[in-house]
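Support reply, case 0932

Customer input (verbatim):
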Amino acid sequence: MSLSPQAAELLFENIVASFQQGQREEAMRLSVSALEQGLDEPLVLLLAGESLEQDGRGPEGIALLREAAEIAPEEAEVWFCLGTMRIRQGLEEEGLADLKTALSLQANLLPALTSAAAASYRLGHLTDAQSYYRQIVALDPNSADSLAALAAIAARQRNAGEARKMASRALALHPGNFSAEMAIGRADLLDGDPDSTCARMNQLLARPELDNDARVAILDLRAEALDTLDQTDAAFLDYASRNALLTQKFAPRMAREVSERYVDRARRLANSLSHQAPQAWQDTAGPDTAAAAAGCRHIFLLSFPRSGTTLLEKVLSSHSAMLTLEEVDLLSDIASEWLDSDAQISALAQLAPEQAAQYRERYWQRVREATGAGLQGKTVLDKLPLHTLSLPVIAKLFPGARVLFAVRDPRDVVLSCFRRRFQINPAMFELLDIEGAARFYHEVMNLAEISRALLPLGVHEVRHEQVVERFEQTIRSVLQFIGLEWEPGMLRFTDALPADPRTPSDMQLRRGLNADGLGQWRRYGAKMTPVMAALEPWVQRYGYE
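Our regenerated output:
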């Protein structure tokens, strides 16, 4: 039923009055009713969308806010509301883009600056986060939380002096500020004083008001300090306690949202492929004409997390002909269409060339969008370790692609996966328990072995230890495999590292090549005993002692 102009005006006035008087629930209720009667003012859409989100209908709420943004694209507040709702719904990148639109319309919109700063920090966009927090401090010099965030960013950038400076300003305004205390603890560690870091973390852990997210951060830093002190038993316990809290936090979400665990998926794919007829997989689904038309080579860099893929990718990306897709997933949804059941896998083996061409074009369109660069004469490196689970799709869709497979001592791989703090997604969730990490490693490597035996893949193993210890010789061999010439500038690959580290490996690589990570498993002694039997076949397979 449509409202008369007079009734619509009166209803809208009541919504505005309720909103201005702080009666938000009433304003939301009225907005839902107004929308049902055809009133689609931006404020009505915003409040009705918020009501839908509260009712667990987040995607519908976002749709209403997008409609509001289309009606009033010049209103910064609308883009701010859309961005924050998207972030609440887990769409961080999209929400951050909306917040940037809001700030382009109103540069000093403090709530948008605050939300954009926090989202950028969570996403690892440290340079952007630093810029936003500095703008906030310029507008509000007494913002202790923003100063503490600047201290945390400086600490992550390994700038101990700046971290202490910002943290001291934050603590002067807000004694006991948690983020500032953490930043000083990180600065102590950077300055070679892990004992002070441990002492500060012990004091923080004694605070009764801590939530589990804070405990995760404390345990993570204390474990790192204990590892530096070579107190590996104590460090292992802290890593385990941290991971137990993360498991507790994310297990309900995984149970709710993930239909098949990654470890189960790897096992199922290996079993299915082992029963496939080899001949069907040897027949191609036609050449990759999209890559040929673009005039580029195509390389996949695969393996398992913490196997040395990031080091290898950074080295190769310093080559003038290399165009890198770093941790950008352009393939998983395509792979899921073909790998979710035995029947689909069998159908993939029989894939017709014209059907394959459609999927190839979809992939290469995404490559063009992700890189924003011309592909002519380039070698496109698609690096995502767990695309190992997509090897059947890679083999069928991209018969001309080469595969670099990173290898590292399995014991170091599993220990490192357990120790490092990743952003939790369904794959990284498998790494929170060391025995679970070993099981996942076994299933993924087993799938890789079966795939390499069955599929017509051009694969070159790259041993992480050899990259570290015999750098030029190893990289020359890799370049020969992919058809490129050695460039002396590759010796200085760290010069081209981005300012913002995205992964634990990125942060380590800022120190350049070093052998510190080799053989770390030996230091953890008995703590590795529960996984040694599971890893032994792979230790033997890859020729480690």
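We compared this against your earlier run and they match. Two observations from our side: The mean pLDDT is 91. The first strand starts at residue 297 and ends at 302. Please reopen the case if you see a mismatch on your end.
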